[in-house]
Amino acid sequence: MKKLNLTVATDDYDHFRDFRLGLVKAEGIETTWLCMDIHEVFSRFAANREWDVSELSFAKFVAQATEPDPDIIGIPVFASRMFRMSSFYINRKSGIKTAADLRGKKVGLPEWAQTAAVYTRGWLAHEVGVPLTEIDWYQAGTEQPGRTEKVELNLPKGLRLTRVTDKALSGMLAAGELDCIMTARPPSCFAKKHPDVARLMPDFQTEEMRQFEHTKVYPIMHIIALKRSILKEHPWVARNLFNAFEESKNNSLERLTDMSVSRYPVPWLADTVEKLQNKYGKDLYPYGIEENRPTLETFLQYAYEQGIARRHAKPEDLFPPGIMVSVKV
After folding, report:
1. What confidence tens digit (pLDDT) does each residue in 13-65 have?
2. Judgement on whether residues 90 and 203 belong to the same structural domain of the protein
3. For the purposes of burial, counting CB atoms within 10 Å of the CB of 132, is it exposed (0-12), middle (13-18) or buried (19 or more)?
4. Bridge partner list, 225
5. Does the residue 324 lie in any domain?
6. Are residues 96 and 132 in the same domain?
7. Of 54, 70, 50, whose CA–CA distance to 318 is shortest?
8. Alpha-carbon separation of residue 165 from 32, 227, 269 (angstroms)
9. Mean pLDDT, residues 159-181 taken together
10. Rounded CA separation 92/193 (Å)
11. Does one domain contain both 157 and 256?
12. Whether 35 and 16 share a structural domain
């Protein structure tokens, strides 16, 4: 049987490494792997579908996968997962002490359909009780002017979103033109220790762990997307890709817990991983649907409420039917 050749584009992740380098194989598939800057991967696949399998922002994926006749479908493999209580940056002069103080404030973000912001806005609305219509929202690049949305939006009625084309969020926050910004990466004004800029939650990890224990939501940032045309012609592709990604990830977790050598230049890493596994379970980075149902359902609700998803989808709507069928013997 001749193998199917697929092009795959992702950022560089240790949990993809063995699959990318060919140490793990997807049955019946040969891959040409493109390892590029993640923003380029997102932009080119979202706009032009330049390869067969792609890492994609979860929000952008949901926006496109919930269209009436979508041309992509997901594989329940999650390239990036991160808690995001660290992503609130405030101007100290704005008088913001808690998240509830964001009511009536000017808040900036790089894109409305940025996955990190979907989670933090949903948390604000559902957990803190601040309606998104009671914040003045501003969209601009974090460090450079001119960043635009990559997908179409259907913003909720009454929501105020101003697009700024000639300034960047970091400078606006430092100047006091914005009270707060929500960004996945620390803005330069914070990294350079501007005296008026601080994190809203300096002890963000404590809040993130509390939220996880309360909700079981481990935020998914990026997902693996597949062209539906390939799945239609080769229905076995999705599960075979999933199996290879899963094996590669498991190998990565084994490397993290190897106490015989220092595989990564970080002290006590294996000990830290072991403590987390003792508390949360052996698989700290689960793929699949059922293991991630609270996260998937929460995000799909937020994405629909915030005008990103075209419909309120269920987790099963995002993936090929039966992809997680049990193969235990």
Report:
1. 999 999 999 999 999 999 999 999 999 999 999 999 999 999 999 999 999 99
2. yes
3. buried
4. 54, 74
5. no
6. yes
7. 70
8. 37, 33, 42
9. 97
10. 12
11. no
12. yes
Residue 292's domain comprises 4-82+219-318
Q: How far apart are CA 122 and CA 126, in angstroms?
A: 6
| pLDDT score, position 262 | 85
What does the angle CA 34 – CA 15 – CA 89 come to, to the nearest 5 degrees? 90
Write the DSSP string, 89-126.
EEEGGG---SGGGGTT-EEEES-TT-HHHHHHHHHIII
Our count of domains for the chain comes to 2
Residue-wise burial string across 268-304, b where 16 or more C-beta atoms lie within 10 A, e elsewhere: ebbeebeeeeeeeeeeeebbbbebbeebbebbbebbb
Among residues 139, 144, 123, 35, the alpha carbon closest in space to that of 79 is found at 35
Amino acid at site 40: E
* Cβ pair 287, 218 in contact under 8 A: no
Q: Can you give the CATH number for the domain in which 92 is found?
A: 3.40.190.10
Locate 109 and state its tokens: 């973000």
Question: What residues pair up with 32 in beta bridges, in sequence order?
Answer: 7
End-to-end CA distance of the chain: 26
Residue 100 pLDDT level (bands cut at 50, 70, 90): very high
Q: Return the closest-CA partner of residue 174 out of 162, 159, 160, 186.
A: 186
**What are the tokens at 137?**
């929202």
Domain stops at, among 182, 215, 248: 215
Distance CA 296, CA 293 (A): 5
pLDDT band at 329 (very low <50, low <70, confident <90, very high): low
Q: How far is CA 169 from CA 119, 214, 296, 328, in A?
A: 19, 32, 29, 51
Domain boundary, last residue among 200, 215, 230: 215
How far from 96 is each of 92, 99, 190, 289, CA to CA, in Å? Answer: 7, 7, 16, 38
Beta bridge partners of 222: 57, 80
